[in-house]
Design a protein that fits this description.
five-stranded antiparallel beta sheet, 2 domains, alpha+beta, MetI-like fold, disordered N terminus, 5 strands, 15 helices, 367 residues, 60% helix
């Protein structure tokens, strides 16, 4: 039996590797997961939630570049391990400037403004800087800053917000699917294995939850638990277990009649061991496929909640909230501010759906 299981697993893996779109989607998800985990090492804006903005730079087009004057030496401090994963609480104060020149004892500069007539001409004494020589000031405090995807309505780096926002989408998928598996597999296995009144009670609960519209149920749970990052995860996970429970129950009803389960009972094994060691391992193929689909569904539900203002709260970026913040720009000549996070969400959801379809075909013994 063990050799056959290994052989079937190897055969499924070989089938999966032959599907181009499935493999491409898998590596896309792996790459995005890696990028999201180490987001603050990659993104240009390393403040927490990429929330450093300048209203003078709001809604700039992709590829925008400006000269920045740094007025703080805090960038010299060493980065801690926590800042690599959570971002830095504070970065040097940066002022966008148009031009600058040095006098005998001061640095003179003109601030950047969308309207040149409102630009300010300011001066700082050279002694303000750690090394007051002009050459050192140019090297350490003046640099060119590029915005590959432009800036949002608050002047924040759009690329940084987009990458950090992927954390919310991936995290909601993992947490929601894990929670739905814990509840769905447990209740489905108990209902299918014992049957009778226990089965009737669990199926009544499943049908009751199933009859409530998903988004409405999520909104109700979110309002009950409160708005927040983890509350959304729990709310989405609590609405996705019903499908898992129904599938597991059906699989358990079929598997528990097999001869190896009867043999396990004859050997005196307790019900918990039979369920965990003999029944559930032979029921997981369809559950894996459903989990991939639920992962995609969780991302869409969270995005819908964020769009409604019930998801991740300001200043935490999420793709849904980014669409909400910028959808008005579709009619104002800058549709990319809403389309880019929408396309990112589409690609991630499509990747999980393709992975699920490929797993379904790979685990189908009839093919």
């Amino acid at each position: 039996m063990a050799d056959k299981t290994i052989s079937n697993n190897q055969l499924a893996l070989q089938k999966f590797k032959k599907d181009f779109w499935g493999v491409l989607s898998f590596w896309f998800v792996v790459a995005l997961s890696f990028i999201s985990i180490f987001a603050y090492v990659i993104v240009p804006d390393k403040t927490q939630n990429a929330n450093a903005g300048n209203l003078a730079l709001r809604s700039k087009e992709p590829g925008f570049s400006v000269t920045m004057l740094s007025l703080d030496d805090k960038s010299e401090t060493a980065s801690s391990w926590s800042s690599w994963f959570m971002g830095k609480e504070q970065l040097p104060l940066e002022i966008p400037i148009v031009n600058y020149h040095f006098s005998r004892d001061s640095l003179h500069f003109t601030t950047y403004s969308n309207h040149p007539q409102t630009a300010e001409k300011l001066a700082l004494p050279l002694t303000y800087f750690k090394d007051p020589t002009p050459h050192s000031i140019i090297d350490q405090s003046i640099h060119q800053k590029n915005y590959l995807l432009g800036t949002d309505s608050q002047g924040r780096d759009f690329l940084s917000r987009l990458i950090i926002g992927s954390r919310v989408s991936l995290a909601i998928g993992f947490v929601a699917v894990t929670l739905s598996l814990l509840i769905g597999v447990s209740l489905g296995a108990v209902a299918g294995y014992y049957g009778g009144k226990i089965d009737a009670l669990i199926m009544w609960l499943v049908n009751m939850v199933w009859s409530i519209p998903t988004l409405l149920l999520v909104i109700a749970i979110t309002l009950a638990l409160g708005k927040g990052f983890w509350q959304v995860f729990i709310a989405v996970g609590l609405t996705m277990w019903v499908e898992v429970a129904r599938v597991v129950r059906g699989q358990v009803i079929s598997v528990k009649e097999q001869q190896y389960v009867t043999a396990a009972r004859a050997l005196g094994y307790d019900d918990l061991r039979i369920i965990l060691r003999h029944v559930l391992p032979n029921c997981m193929a369809p559950v894996i496929v459903i989990s991939a689909a639920n992962f995609a569904s969780a991302i869409l539900v969270e995005s819908g909640l964020s769009f409604l203002g019930l998801g991740a709260q300001v200043p935490v970026p999420s793709w849904g909230s980014m669409i909400k913040e910028n959808y008005n720009y579709i009619l104002m000549g800058k549709p990319y501010l809403a389309l880019i996070p929408g396309i990112a969400m589409f690609l991630l959801v499509m990747a999980f759906m393709l992975i699920g379809n490929t797993l379904r075909d790979a685990l189908d013994v009839k093919k």
